DNA sequence: TTATATGCAAACATTTTGCAACGCC
DNA sequence: GGCGTTGCAAAATGTTTGCATATAA
């Protein structure tokens, strides 16, 4: 009773690479668009199936931002996100503004296992345009 | 040319009260269910329309958590959320773990206008059950 | 060869919209 | 009475699934 065989296909390779080389989390439509650059005939169903597969494998994970589900590659270490209120792009931040290690007991008796922080504001590019 | 008149209806009153008296953010289905306790015939479209109306008025605002959109009353001051990984309930936290006032320039040149923090872990009740 | 993966289209789930009936003001 | 609001059903979105064909191994 072994796990079902996993095949390496061009579709999966391309979708994986799109996420691995992305500068931040991507929306499903964005993944489809970028992957179609290499595979014009790629279907949206394959993207959804592959995203689920990669998520189950722990190679990527979903990030929900303003109601939209984005996907990003795992294994990039602890980080957070910055959502630009001007251009809408989402950036990855490598500095963490909170000190809440696993096991911290938060006021009220909440035992913290993990945390997520999202910052909103102007990204460097949009801030420069305003000036 | 004044703004269109807003009418006070039983539906809007009930939906507003459901959110005002909620202990935390509620999912749309949860709002519908609670409101139907008072208004059995209430339609889901009215709930969506009213949620959008109240949001536009700034009286409530959406909170996205794990891909689900929840709504909570505004004007409760700055706070964050704790999502229990055991029972799934979402709690409101009144202590803020970050010091990022508006205008803070975050490493990388990001100008912070707002921030959101979500903590994950065991709520007091679930933590007690484990012990 | 053969079981898994893909693409298409149909099925679902969720949210929005059109419209006639209804009810505040 | 008039116009905003409601409930229903249809439409628009976003995501999943069935199935015949294509393909990795």
Automatic annotation (TrEMBL), chains A, B:
Establish whether keyword rRNA-binding is in the entry: no
A Pfam family (short name) is: FUR
- Keyword Transcription attached: yes
Supply the alphabetized keyword list.
DNA-binding, Repressor, Transcription, Transcription regulation, Zinc
Q: Which family does it belong to?
A: Belongs to the Fur family.
Under which name does UniProt file this protein?
Fur family transcriptional regulator
Q: What organism is the protein native to?
A: Deinococcus petrolearius
Q: What is the lineage of its organism?
A: Bacteria, Thermotogati, Deinococcota, Deinococci, Deinococcales
